[in-house]
Specification:
alpha/beta, seven-stranded mixed β-sheet, 9 helices, 34% helix, 22% strand, globular
């Protein structure tokens, strides 16, 4: 199995245009085997771009194609409206890769979704997307670095380390059930705990690799969930473990308050919860190889 998406997922690209990033990555997703069934653009409704029918709104696209997921790659000024348009059209799973959305807009959209569209899941914004190897790829991940068949589920705040972790697992012959890049912005639509809970319920996921980052408290909250709710082995790595103290970091989520949010605080919390903690992505894959070998 996989979490959140599978080979039946039908994707609409919001904001599709002949030169846009959405079309570029959407075509790569389609080449991977993802069902890309429609695009939207208020100015191009009725057109067909690269064999993708374009509609003026998500509602029209859903009515015509039965789309169940959306892929948003529009500029930050239009992304919050695009997310809410997808939710209002009945889209169940929204992937938004857009970066530089103001935090207050992220918080507003998050609260509207929680209040008015509780059945809709948002992944991102500012994330690489999701890949269920061999079934569905929505976002900017290169499909050739992933391997289908499981047994490992992958979830990451860091986009770059997300790709590396997929590659490292594949190089060791370890398949993945689903890789989820949740993004590192302050208000992500999908959290570590959402993914850990889904992997725990997925019978084909037998171990989880979790990639955290310095800043915020998401890893400490995940550690509490791992200690109380996870029966499956969890291996973790915290990106930024060697970041120099006092240095301003570029990532939106990398805000450290005193001793909270440091790599050490997160690693201590995860170890106390029973997770195995690696010092770098390659070591994380090595530890996961030991875990997988012991699964029988």
């Amino acid at each position: 199995m996989s979490i959140f998406v599978d080979d039946k997922t039908k994707v609409v690209i919001q904001g599709v245009s002949p030169t846009g990033q959405g079309l570029y990555h959407g075509l790569r997703n389609r080449s991977y085997g993802t069902q890309v069934v429609a695009g939207t653009n208020p100015k191009r409704g009725g057109e067909v771009i690269e064999d993708i029918p374009v509609y003026a709104s998500v509602k029209e696209a859903v009515q015509a194609t039965g789309a169940t997921a959306s892929f948003i790659a529009v500029p930050p000024g239009g992304a919050p409206g695009a997310i809410l348009e997808a939710a209002e059209a009945g889209i169940a799973f929204i992937v938004c890769i857009t970066e530089f959305i103001p935090a207050q807009d992220e918080a507003r959209v998050y609260n509207v979704l929680r209040r008015d569209f509780p059945q809709t899941r948002l992944l991102g914004p500012n994330c690489p997307g999701i890949i269920s190897p061999g079934k569905c790829n929505i976002g900017i991940t290169s499909g050739d670095i992933a391997t289908p068949g499981g047994p490992v589920g992958l979830v990451s705040r860091s986009g770059t380390v997300f790709y590396q972790a997929l590659y490292e697992l594949t190089q060791k012959g370890i398949g993945q059930t689903t890789g989820v890049g949740i993004g590192g912005d302050p208000v992500p639509g999908t959290s570590f705990i959402d993914c850990l809970s889904a992997f725990e319920a997925d019978p084909e996921t037998r171990a989880v690799l979790m990639i955290g980052e310095i800043g915020g408290s998401a890893e400490e909250e995940a550690a509490e969930f791992i200690g109380k709710e996870m029966s499956k082995p969890v291996v973790t790595y915290i990106a930024g473990v060697t970041a120099p103290p006092g240095r301003k970091m570029g990532h939106a989520g990398a805000i450290i308050s005193g001793s909270k949010g440091t790599a050490k605080a997160k690693m201590d919390a995860l170890e106390a919860a029973g997770a195995r903690v690696a010092m770098n992505p390659t070591a994380a894959a090595d530890i996961m190889a030991e875990v997988v070998a012991g699964l029988g």
